[in-house]
Amino acid sequence: MPAVLQMLVKTSRSRYFPAVLSALVSLAVYVVCLRGTYIYDDRLLLEDDPRTQLPIQWVRLWKESYNGGVDLLYRPLTSMTYAVQNLLHRGWAMPFHLVNWLLHAAVVVVLVELVRRCSNARIAMFVGLIFAIHPIHVEVVVNIVGRAEELCALFTLGALLIFVTPPLTTKKTIAILFCTLCAIGFKEQGILMPAFLLFAWYFLRRQSINDPLNPARESEQKALKLLLILICWAVAGYIITREQFLKFEWDRSFLESSVNPVVLSQGWDKVLMPLVILGRYSALMIAPVHQSIDYGARVVGSHAQMNNPYLWIGIATSFAWLITFIVAMRKQSSLLVFALLCAGICYGLIGNIVTIIGTVMGERLLYLPSAFLLIAAGVMWNALPKKLGNTLLIVLVVLGSYRTVDYSRRWNDRLGLYEYLQAQQPDSANLYALVAEEYRQHGDLQSAAEVLSRGRNRIPENWGLWVQSAIVATDQGKLDDAQQFVDRAFQLRPMPNLIGVFDRLERLKQFRAKGLLVDPASRPARPRANDSNRSR
Asked: Which of 166, 260, 373, 450 has its CA 20 to 30 A from that of 515?
């Protein structure tokens, strides 16, 4: 500790002090995550995917979908980081969490430096500290698969940092190109990089580059033209390459309405539902109290009811964005305009406005947009009286840190987290399913059946809960109940893969008739392992 304090004292007079302090705060609040385990999609992509388990399968990561979803995600670089780490320490979760922990701190540093070089250290300090501790980022940092968001943000912000730091040279142009390709390879959101660079040039660098008194004016203009050519070729090359393996277009009819209910929206609902989603995101940014890893049909819905408070929050947020943008343009607040535009196009990609994405909403999707939103907030916060602004910052950091630490520690116990979130979001069918599957994996079939019963009573239209109920009932030896559950699931959504469940039930009934079926009640339940203590 004394060494840390000495370093802080030494750097307090340094221009890098905001970045160092913000990074240390980030590491402090998330240190609890190092004891974590595999949660949710971690198990699908790290434990169950043979492509990340066997080096001979790595080539498939460059040719196939990231997670096998219908929306055809393509993140080969992110998948390769999982594969390499699996090769080094297969079955050990801590090193995965260590990388995510350090990556978040790196993103904080790059963000702070970007803001400092575009404004001042005070605004940079605000943005860095709030971004470091904001509870909305817990899912990204603590959930291993959140790494895609971290890496995309790191290289996106890194490219912008290089671009806004004069002078622009050929070497920097190559570095920006490299960052752009990496950002796209880590997550599809990186495709927005050309727009970010365009906004950065027009609002942050145009005047300085074109300034007649700029001694590097001609070389910067040449480098700018080279960057334009390289970025265009890079994006075109990415699109052509990806089209060879995965099409950008995919059939929306295969998208589950329980995952993204916007597919059911018609008429004005198609216009208003993005505002409802925006309202939910805005509420999470301001007061991240009731957080969840899943927002589905019953939580978000497909119809924009006039009495839905999130609709009006979304409308208010839209007007606030528009008014702030107009004022910023009139006052020529370039950084504020830049941040608002970047945040706006980010939401255009995740808000189900034009292209429906595979999920209706997710806290992880706010990681990069929140950086731009906090830049805008920092510019406005800087206009407050200094004493008031400092007091507000301290309060926000204390409250945000407490919430982040409390929420992060819950991710160390998979079943405990699912039960906590299910209580927070009782209308999420997926959370009932996750809790029940954990009980089933631990051999507690009775608890799994009880959870699914509550889920069916609460959300009877979700066919997935009926299928999972059939599986649990089959494990219990209650084949007649299982048959009823499968019949109900088939009524809700006839699907070819349910035929396999029918066939399994028929075989088990034959075994029971011959006296060959073992009574599951005679099997002892397996004790639940402490996920936080899992090792190699």
From this structure: 450
For residue 536, what pLDDT is reported? 32
Looking at 331-428, list the stretches that DSSP marks H as alpha helix, in order from N- to C-terminal side: 334-350, 367-381, 386-410, 414-424
- Tell me the pLDDT band of 89, cut-offs 50, 70 and 90: confident
Three-state SS for 198-231 is HHHHHHHHHHHHHCCCCCCHHHHHHHHHHHHHHH
Q: Quick one: pLDDT band at residue 530, thresholds 50, 70, 90? A: very low
Q: Are 166 and 92 in contact (CB under 8 A)?
A: no
Residue extent(s) of CATH 1.25.40.10 domains in the chain: 428-533
Joined together, the tokens standing for residue 460 give 């009877």
Q: Does 7 score more than 50 pLDDT?
A: yes
Question: Backbone dihedral region of 477: left (phi > 0), alpha (psi from -120 to 50 degrees) or beta?
Answer: left
Q: What is the pLDDT of residues 498-522, one digit of tens each?
A: 555 555 555 555 555 544 444 444 4
Q: Where are the alpha helices (DSSP H) in 119-146?
A: 121-133, 138-142
What's domain 428-533's architecture? Alpha Horseshoe (1.25)
DSSP for 396-417 reads HHHHHHHHHHHHHHHTTSHHHH
As a three-state string, the secondary structure of 238-258 is HHHHHHHHCCCCCCHHHCCCC
CA distance 455 to 428: 9
The string of pLDDT tens digits covering residues 167-186 is 999 999 999 999 999 999 99
Tally of CB atoms within 10 A around 35: 18
Q: Specify the amino acid at residue 487.
A: D
Rg (CA), the chain: 25
Closest by Cα among 64, 125, 112, 55 to 83: 55
Q: Are 99 and 147 in contact (CB under 8 A)?
A: yes
CA angle 411, 415, 416 (to 5 degrees): 60
At residue 139 the predicted structure's pLDDT band, cuts being 50, 70 and 90, is: very high
Can the peptide bond before residue 167 be classed as cis, meaning omega within 30 degrees of 0?
Answer: yes
Instruction: Give dist(CA 10, CA 303) in Å, integer.
Output: 56
- pLDDT tens-digit profile of 91-120? 789 999 999 999 999 999 999 999 999 999
- The dihedral region occupied by 487, where left means phi > 0, alpha psi between -120 and 50, and beta the remainder, is alpha
Of 6-20, 108-122, 234-248, which gets the smallest average pLDDT? 6-20
Give pLDDT, residue 217: 86
Q: What is the model's pLDDT at position 277?
A: 93
In angstroms, the CA 201 to CA 367 distance is 23
- The span from the CA of 233 to the CA of 239, in Å, is 10
